[in-house]
Input
Amino acid sequence: MAAVHAIGYIAWMRTTSGCAVVALLCATASAAAVDTNWANYGAHPSQDRYSDLTQINKLNVSNLRLAWRFEMDPAGDSQTNPLVIDEVLYGFTPGLQVVALDAATGQLRWKFDAGVRGIEFVPGAHFAGPSRGLTYVSQGGQKRLFAGVMNYLYALNPATGQPIPSFGEGGVIDLRKDLRGDYKQHYVALTSPGVVYKDLIIVGFRTSETLPAPPGDVRAYDVRTGKLRWSFHTIPHPGELGADTWPEDARKDAGAANNWAGMTLDVRKGIVYVPTGSAAPDFYGHDRVGNDLFANTLLALDAATGKRIWHFQGVHHDIWDRDFPSPPSLLTVHSNGKRVDAVVQATKQGYLYVFDRATGRPLFPIEEINVPASNVPGEVAAPTQPRPTAPEPFARQRLTPDLLTQRTPEAHAWAEEQFKTFRSEGQFLPLSVGKPTVFFPGFDGGAEWGGMAVDPRAGIAYINSNDIAWTGSLVESVQGGGLSASIYQSQCSVCHGVDKKGSPPAFPSLVGIGERLSAAQIADVIHTGRGRMPAFSNIQGHILSSFVEYLRTGQEPVPPTPAGDTRREMGASLFSAGRPQRYRFSGYSRFLDPQGYPAVAPPWGTLNAIDLNTGKYLWRRPLGEYPELRQPDTGSENYGGPIVTATGVLFIGATVFDHQLRAFDAVTGELLWHGDLPYSGCATPATYVAGGRQYVVIATNNARNLKGPKGAAYVAYALP
Output
């Protein structure tokens, strides 16, 4: 098959129509075995999102029709890239139940429910996730399906959905353990699946972006027993490499620097590639002055031992929440006349970094550029930040007056007035106190968790991007007031805003929360977390009761105070690890016009094809639209990524508002087909064969489109 595929690949690269490769591959498909499964998150451990399947091609893709639809309870943000193995589809529902479906019909075979439930913050919008995928392993005659449900990692029997008792404690391990201190006080959630190397499953986790937060250790567990086998400290312990990039007193209880986005595995080389996020707190780093290794870092670790091989830090002393947002992809490129096995990492700021995956040598030069200093007392921003010289960024880098919306004269005039109140000086401008700073691209990228697809042999990367602006600032922490107000300031306002209005749907409004949720429901959310919200299990007793009442009414009752302790001291011990924060983040804010559309000029979302052999763009086009605007080339916010097939067809959903699954010509960017989805396809598709037919399936729901119909479904298309 290798020789046949190489000939087909050359033919495809030399024709824009794809006819040559279609004929060749279809004629030879029966002569060699083709993988008909989608057995890994992202298709393969290499995270290439690439399929060798050839039944659907450029000539017939326009004939795709709805094959089946599996409806689910819309109790969360459905982001799952499902697995399909031996004609069975495994996926999560938005409410974090695991389901097994007949991949040819969509009929339910079994469901596993760990008991996690969503809470309705706003009418029709539930938040209980997300979980982006599962991990499957078949070794020594044993098959296991690993499912992360919040802080628990379950090992399930793929045939029945029942936990396997020999793994961990009755089929499950608690990922809060083996980190630091009292594990019951930690918020940990496995939102992206682990990777399997030999007899190890390697995992990261999501955690709080404010203190207290556990350290973001990367850990490997025995796939049979659940026993911890190794741990890499992303916040180094004393004497470890990188420890000197932290103040000693801060490093002891610093948190995050965690891998929430997922990992990539080079099975042959035995290297796992681990992108990490920022340290906590995200936006004010006065108590972690220094570069803060290994936050915001692409780590190359020995998958067998967890030992560091090489690393690259993408943001020094991050005070912008510029996490590496997705697992990198592996492919082979031509560099300086040689074929090089490469790893490519996307970023929220719209950069692509390309490295020799064995050594970490950049294949395109990376320069350290001078960046502005912070004017906030106590903050010491890094004097330089890295930037690749190629490829060019796939998102705009600085908001200027000429890039403000022209949608209507009124919207433009409004945007001009707002822009005068902002600081907008490009990437890596530190936040200031009281005056909003523009993030362009915004907090959700550039790239987000959907990542990219690559043609691993041609060296081509396909990536979708958000291209709208957000703003944020620092505010001085209010002195005085009650404990509940202090808790809200330190823990909640970073997402829900000083005014409690949030930035829906990702950050729901808490205004009027007492009219939508009971006191018991609010307390449950605080203790267990929902959506992007961490759990605060350390809020207990009368403090919890007071805080719930404060959220419901805006008033703070004064309950009895335990002898020998003050409410203020209790607040400090709960939330600042003894280190009060003089400044805090004002909250996430999209720069939207009064009608709710981006206040910047289109495109608001794009799809890009980049030749990583040269660093040049092959094509770029807007992705998505707002149907009511009747302007097809605006682009829109998009979440979830693309997949690409051997026949040069690229599939992507991702767009929030238009409910479309699209197929593009991977060579030219031409739109070949689009199919209507019942809800937003904000997930990455998968393609597979069942019963002799090739299918394309995607998870859909409208957690991000509050104006759309409520619902959730897996939707599959196939040829007639």
